[in-house]
Amino acid sequence: MDIQFTEEQELLRSSVQRLLRDQYDFEARRKIVASEEGFSRTRWRAFAELGLLAAPFSEDAGGLGGGPLSTMIVMQEFGRHLVVEPFVETVVLAGGLIEQLGTSEQKQAFIPGIIDGSRIWALAWTERASRFDFANIATKARREGDDYVLSGEKTMVMAAPWADHLIVSARTAGDNRDRGGVSLFVVDRHAAGVNLQSFKTIDGRRAAEISLREVRGQLLGAEGEGVAALETCRDRAIGALCAEVVGAIGELNAATLDYSKTRKQFGTAIGSFQVLQHRMVDMFIAHQEALSLMQHLNLSLDAGDSGLSRLASGAKSKIGYAGKFVADQAVQLHGGMGMTDELNVGHYFKRISSINIQFGDPAFHVLRYAQLDAAA
């Protein structure tokens, strides 16, 4: 599959490529990751000024109406440059949930701050025992007046140290694993009772363990809609993350090919060895298959096709395995250099490894695909 982009989509892609080429090379990225905050607010504002944060939102919400295809374009370029800024967490996850579930007042209150880059969001749904299950939630929420009071623990909340607001899943009814008892809430990250333990992840980003103690939150959507909304949100997130992996795979293949032309053993370039040529052909095929499947998924998301969850799980598993294969081969073919911090190959490996466990690892999605296929 090869998408024929519109003139506006081509302009978006070329604009992102130019910005990242000029401001986000590998050395600039290393300095950003090593900084105290761990991401660049200057780059984040540049993304906003370029319209990247507005691109996926509908025009009714104040965005540019680009939908999943604009997200795909942005994330593929972000994957090529290992961008650490929280586009997925703020725009795709939180922004998507607000646009999907929020009242008109909530949309007017929250979405403009996302679009102009003044507010960063994070989604807090994972718990220590949840194992990719949106319904396995122990955090509780009880109603008090117009608001709710939340208590519980969330783990591995990506971008939480940078966030101004959180969207938190909590149980308003039912027992553990009851799908109909989970709701979503908007929480001020700096509110009383919100405690964070921040840490750096393997791919250089920031995440946090979050403790909620009698924290006031604002209901997003209706009670009991949490699991269904998160499942839809997961499909969108998979589309974005798969695009990022495809971008990373492309860069790994290019770097490995260039290295094989210059690295010599026994007086000749290693790219002339037939066994390594076969290996790199396999890497190229894995990239092309992943690219085609990623485009198919995002086209389906854009069109609102049926069976999206099954397609998303198929893409997550297939592209996850392809990403791991290419990353493994790239590191091995670069030899000892592939594991050094100074070379970008190892950083792509770590990022792909991190993406592979977000919203379910490849093995989880193989099983989920089979279950959805059997139920179809």
Automatic annotation (TrEMBL):
Co-factor(s): FAD
Entry keyword set: FAD, Flavoprotein, Oxidoreductase
InterPro entries from the UniProt entry: Acyl-CoA_Oxase/DH_mid-dom, Acyl-CoA_Oxase/DH_mid-dom_sf, AcylCo_DH-like_C, AcylCo_DH/oxidase_C, AcylCoA_DH/ox_N, AcylCoA_DH/ox_N_sf, AcylCoA_DH/oxidase_NM_dom_sf
Pfam families from the UniProt entry: Acyl-CoA_dh_1, Acyl-CoA_dh_M, Acyl-CoA_dh_N
Ranges in coiled-coil conformation: none
Domain Acyl-CoA oxidase/dehydrogenase middle: 122-210
Domain of life: Bacteria
Domain Acyl-CoA dehydrogenase/oxidase C-terminal: 239-361
tRNA-binding found in the keyword field: no
Domain Acyl-CoA dehydrogenase/oxidase N-terminal: 6-117
UniProt record similarity statement: Belongs to the acyl-CoA dehydrogenase family.
Name this polypeptide is given: Alkylation response protein AidB-like acyl-CoA dehydrogenase
Species, as recorded: Bradyrhizobium ottawaense
Lineage: Bacteria, Pseudomonadati, Pseudomonadota, Alphaproteobacteria, Hyphomicrobiales
